[in-house]
Amino acid sequence: MKQNTTVDTKDLVTTIAYLIGVRKNVLEQCFMESSQDLLQSLYASQSATIIRYLCKLRTTLFCTFKKTDDEMRYNLKNLTSLEWYDHKNIATLESWGIPIIKANYRSEKYMLDLNDLINKLMPWLYCSRIGASGPISESFL
User: Fold this and answer.
1) Which of 21, 31, 6, 29 is nearest to 58 (CA)?
2) Most exposed residue of 5, 78, 117, 126, measured as fewest CB within 10 angstroms of its CB?
3) What is d(CA 85, CA 93) in angstroms, rounded to the nearest whole number?
């Protein structure tokens, strides 16, 4: 028999807000009082931070899709040479073994890759939240 688990709505909203990349000051202003322990565990979780950084990159790409694509196409730029991307987040993801920067990529291909990475890593995030641990497997990437 399957057992259902309930989750506090505030915790669910806090988690989703963190994962999709809501600014830290907004998170703390809205949720710190009621979900301080949850926020601290999210800040400490490498898997949650990976999803957060990927979502932030994807959101930036959504918002600047044509501008990014034009820079890549006509000026041979990449995400690391465009000022509207968070270079620190990209470097952190790369240092954790998450491949982001690719040669000769355009916006559409980056969007597909970011979506694919997020979709592959979400089950891993869930497993790490319920107690599984270990480094990200190459099979996820």
Assistant:
1) 21
2) 5
3) 13
Record the tokens describing residue 35, joined without a space. Answer: 């979900």
- Contact present, 95 and 89 (Cβ < 8 Å): no
Encoded tokens for 66 = 């044509």
Spatial distance between the Cα atoms of 37 and 81, rounded to a whole number of angstroms: 37
Q: Per-residue pLDDT tens for 8-66? A: 888 889 999 999 999 999 999 998 888 889 999 999 999 999 999 999 999 999 999 99
Contacts of 21 (CB under 8 A, 6+ apart): 52, 53, 55, 56, 59
Query: Rounded to whole angstroms, how far apart are CA atoms 15 and 87?
Result: 24
CB 58 within 8 A of CB 129: no
User: Tokens 């559409």 map to which residue?
Assistant: 108
Tens of pLDDT, residues 64-105:
999 999 999 999 999 999 999 999 999 999 999 999 999 989
